[in-house]
TrEMBL record:
A divalent metal cation 1 binds at H9, H11, E102, D210. It comes from Harryflintia acetispora. GO terms for cellular component: cytosol. A divalent metal cation 2 binds at H138, H160. Coiled coil: none annotated. Keywords: Hydrolase, Metal-binding. This is TatD DNase family protein. GO terms for molecular function: DNA nuclease activity; hydrolase activity, acting on ester bonds; metal ion binding. It holds the Pfam family TatD_DNase. It comes from the Bacteria.
Amino acid sequence: MLQNIFDSHAHYDSRQFGQSDQGLPDRDALLGAILPRAGVRRVMNVGSDYPSSVQSLRLAKTYPFVSCAVGVHPESASDLENGWLEKIEALAGEGEVRAIGEIGLDYHYEPYSREDQLVVFSAQLELAGRLGLPVIVHSRDAVQDTMNLLREYRPRGIVHCFSGSAETAKEVVALGMYVGFTGVVTFKNAKKALKAAEAVPPERLLVETDCPYMAPEPHRGQRCDSSLLPFTIAALAKIKGVGEQKLADLTYRNACKVYGLPDDL
């Protein structure tokens, strides 16, 4: 069994981790016992709006191996009240908060306001820089605008659930950022993701679930959790030509570095 797994991006605050009608374990069972027994040593739980950021902080205060990020996802950019940024900043002062995220741009689903998303993303990039925190960036169908802002603000951090080209991955790395890959790298049609992962140097590579989404094969379409990361690790280890435990150790150290956590391997 693999050890030292760091799930660098999870959403255990999701309602899908409540008591399940299908008999799946809830978040307390997973975080309290199942995941540590499955070799999961650390988890980064990531907010997507103010309520989920509050819940992420609550989970990090409850479970010592969980850290958290706070921020506003682009899909929430047009529904914000006055003072939203100050509320996120107040949460970011807590010691368990290690990043500003999940922030970014998403032009996939209509309707959306490009202007609102750009304003909210920029404000949080500025906040992260001012607080000295890394960012966790979401980018979907918005490569050009995302890269323009990353070039402008030069944040530390991660482009998570990476879906871009190998060329874009190289530019992300050249900006000093890390790249996170999900169970998508196990899918049969994952040629683009595999090429991007091949282009990322090992020292800039992260593994993540984005759970409850993105479950790897052979569990595709099911609710995902961090215990499924060995499938993602195996796929990336094959790409990099290293052993699976070595890849787990490597990505653990990378995540600790970007999030400013002790490298205790």
